[in-house]
Amino acid sequence: MLSINDLKNGSIIVINGDPYAVLSVKRLHIGRGGSSIQTKIKNIKTGQTLERNFKPADEFEEAEIEKMKSCFIYKNKDTYWFNEVGNPKNRFSFTAEEIGDSVDFLKNNLEITAMKFNDKIISVELPIKVDYKVIESAPAVRGNTAQGGNKTVIIESGAKISVPLFINEGDIIRVNTQTGEYAERAGKG
């Protein structure tokens, strides 16, 4: 069991039977009263973020999260199918709502990490930076820098990304999947 002093950023704990990742911890000490902590936690199953305060008497069970290398295979209607790397028979699926914002950055054969809790796959985690091919891009117009020199392109996963004017159709760009922002050009088309 963990006490409030054991909690730190990145800890994974169980609250009401669900695994939560600790995003931030702030220690509070008011006057002569006991200390407490203010935390920001994220439900790994649902993606919901909460702010909770805990007292010194609170104890937490450390979550046993197993990570499994997996691969995105295909999308069928609103269902996204994955399989375990090295074991294509071990398939599992999630809906777009269960995956959340990461769904915009799924492309065929993209290696991801599946999170298992109590022998059940509860979520998928994409790599932080992934390379994508630009499939649609408006040509850059000379002198068009009124918006800071950016334009919107469509990448192979279907997401729209704001990129610098020098990015063209066919270029390979690196995108941060957590923020959805352009990181750098990885290859010229």
Describe the structure in your own words.
The protein is mainly beta and 189 residues long. It is 2% helix and 56% strand. The chain has one helix and 15 strands; from the N terminus they run E-E-E-E-E-E-E-E-H-E-E-E-E-E-E-E. Strands 4-3-2-1-5 form a five-stranded antiparallel β-sheet, with no helix packed on it. A hairpin with a 2-residue loop joins strand 6 and strand 7. The radius of gyration is 21 Å and the shape is flat.
Roughly what is the average pLDDT, rounded to an integer? 88
Residue runs with pLDDT of under 50 for 5 or more positions: none
CA radius of gyration = 21 Å
Largest sheet: 5 strands, antiparallel
Portion in helices: under 10%
| SSE sequence, one letter per element | EEEEEEEEHEEEEEEE
Strand order of the largest sheet: 4-3-2-1-5
Global shape: flat
Number of strands: 15
Helical stretch tally: 1
Structural class: mainly beta
Beginning-to-end CA distance, first to last residue: 54 Å
What proportion of the residues form beta strands (DSSP E)?
over 45%
Describe the SSE topology.
Layout: E1 12-15, E2 18-29, E3 35-43, E4 49-54, E5 61-62, E6 65-76, E7 79-84, E8 87-95, H1 96-99, E9 111-117, E10 120-125, E11 129-137, E12 150-155, E13 160-164, E14 172-176, E15 181-187
Antiparallel strand pairs: 1-2, 1-5, 2-3, 3-4, 6-7, 6-9, 7-8, 9-10, 11-12, 11-14, 12-13, 14-15
Give a short overview:
With 189 residues, the protein is mostly beta strands. The chain is built from one helix and 15 strands, in the order ββββββββαβββββββ.
